[in-house]
Amino acid sequence: MELIRQAGARKGARPDTFVGWLFVTPAILHTIVFMAVPAAGALFLSFTEWDMTSAPRWTGLRNYQEILFDRDLYPDFWISVRVTLLYAVLAVPAALFTGFVQAYLIDTVRRGQGFFRLAFYLPVVTAEAAVAAIWRWLYDPQFGLINEALGLIGIEGPDWLGIPEMVVPALVLIAAWQSGTAMLIFLAGMKGIPRNLYEAAEIDGANRRAQLFSLTLPLLRPTTFYLTVTGVIFALQMFGVVYVLFGRDIGGPESAGLTYVLQLYVSGFRDGEMGVASAMSFLLFIATLLITALQFRLSRRDAAS
Amino acid sequence: MTLLAERTRPPVGHRRAGSRSGRRAPAPLRVVAFLLLAAGSLVALAPFAWMVATSFKQPQDVFTSTPHLLPTTEEGDWAGTLANYTEVFELGGFGGAFLNSVLVVAVLIPLKVFCSALAAYAFARIPFPGRDRLFAALLATIMLPSVALLVPKVYVTQWLGMADSLTGLIVPSLVSAFDIFLLRQFFLTHPKEVEEAAMMDGASRLRIFWSIALPMARPALAVVTITAFIFHWNDLLWPLVILSDQDNYTLPLALQALASGRVAQPHLVMAGAVVAVMPVILIFLIFQRRILDGIQFTGLK
């Protein structure tokens, strides 16, 4: 019997339950304590009133009702939804477009590919707090470099962070500056396109522009889709930059820079309404799922047509 | 699915004149593209140059209507100073914050990489009942946006008595499902023969993991280590909700506190920003090819 089993089993594939569990226990235990328990807790807490000191009081759906429909109680909620959606709709295409142009140009040149890749990625590895600190100084209405540069070409720059209408555009400009991720992934996609496709196109008489629009762009559609989905998920969680950019003046002028997570942070950690903050967290989770599902659906319809 | 195996190859098209890239552009086009890129990289790097320049300026030279890149007076005389750095280190609490940041990453990163590698190896190589279902459950946690768990995670951390301490910055981040996923992919691509030969010689699983699998996985471990370092060194949100005592602040928090002061002090804030970003920029410059190629093949941020 023993002999048969040994012959039948592939060497090195015999179950090793004790050692296997030993290896995964730290990771599993940690995931239970810091992921599974909080996930269950988030849902439970969202149906309670809780200030983190006394015991949570069950209030059912009241948090959700008040957040979504009681504008007097939570006036900032819908403002932050609008700000965040506007930011996502503008910032993601801006970063993708900039990243694509950078990648396309890098793919064209012979020299300096490594350096350009580095220069465009540097803003991505910079701490959010530092990004905000630097740009706050660049946007300074009196001494800021941005308006100084605009002045050189005869444009009077606005007070970027002081006028409500200019706040989201200012954030979008920062997002375009941090286009390094899109640049890298587009570049990888371009390098992955087989050369002979271009050669065939050339033989068919397609010029460079035709190659770009009928070859490169369609072939990079999955890449674009991936970057759009991850970019939107990331944009919906925008927090660090706006938190530091406006400092004490949370959300900026007329809350024009009040992102969803920023007002969630204020509700939970400043106003001490942990139940409400949990409900907002859960709503964000649902919204992220819905928006992602919608993008998948749109892309499928796009591919079918 | 050999994402990580790709990382060990020489980078595609790097320093080799667009070798794999499909289009050989005519020379004039290449020149135009190069000039555009040169201008673009100047724009991308200008904020960094301005940050460094401002950090060496005296306050009276900061607020001028004609900006100078070099720290000079209105008359153009050299007026660079290190005073802003001594001031943020001594008065702005950056000395302590720097130490805290170093402590956190020095303890957290090796432990995190080790725990993730240990689990990843078992998921790739050690068969046991229920293993794959367990792995699928672990992968599902990647889908949860971290912000959505923030409130209860803070509570769990408090309940464990880790609030307002460096421990509270380290322990809750010790395992990353994403890193486990990446490392497992890498271990799966290892040739089995070496490990099987060692098994025949009676080596234990732990021994094989430590002496064979880990050394072979060095490129993947490097990418995971560096990306974890960059993330945790820069992280603002978690320290912000866990810490209250200024003595425990990490650099991003110290910078945030300095930047939200009532009086605008760009010369100090920029010196603080230089201190906060320099270590990451140095690490990035040293390992840039490895990092960029790694990210290119996995699409992680």
From TrEMBL, chain A:
The lineage of its organism: Bacteria, Bacillati, Actinomycetota, Actinomycetes, Streptosporangiales. Keywords: Cell membrane, Membrane, Sugar transport, Transmembrane, Transmembrane helix, Transport. GO terms for biological process: transmembrane transport. Belongs to the binding-protein-dependent transport system permease family. It is a multi-pass membrane protein. InterPro entries: ABC_transporter_permease, MetI-like, MetI-like_sf. It is found in: Cell membrane. The chain crosses the membrane at residues 21-47, 85-106, 118-138, 166-188, 225-246, 274-296. It comes from Nonomuraea polychroma. Residues 81-295 form the ABC transmembrane type-1 domain. Gene3D superfamilies: MetI-like. The keyword Ligase does not apply. The keyword Isomerase does not apply. PANTHER family: ABC TRANSPORTER PERMEASE PROTEIN, INNER MEMBRANE ABC TRANSPORTER PERMEASE PROTEIN YCJO. GO terms for cellular component: plasma membrane. This is Multiple sugar transport system permease protein.
From TrEMBL, chain B:
The chain crosses the membrane at residues 29-53, 97-122, 134-155, 167-187, 208-231, 268-287. GO terms for biological process: transmembrane transport. Residues 98-287 form the ABC transmembrane type-1 domain. PROSITE patterns: ABC_TM1. CDD domains: TM_PBP2. Residues 1-22 are annotated as: Disordered. GO terms for cellular component: plasma membrane. The keyword Manganese does not apply. It is a multi-pass membrane protein. Coiled coil: none annotated. Keywords: Cell membrane, Membrane, Transmembrane, Transmembrane helix, Transport. It comes from the Bacteria. Belongs to the binding-protein-dependent transport system permease family. This is Carbohydrate ABC transporter membrane protein 2 (CUT1 family). The lineage of its organism: Bacteria, Bacillati, Actinomycetota, Actinomycetes, Streptosporangiales.
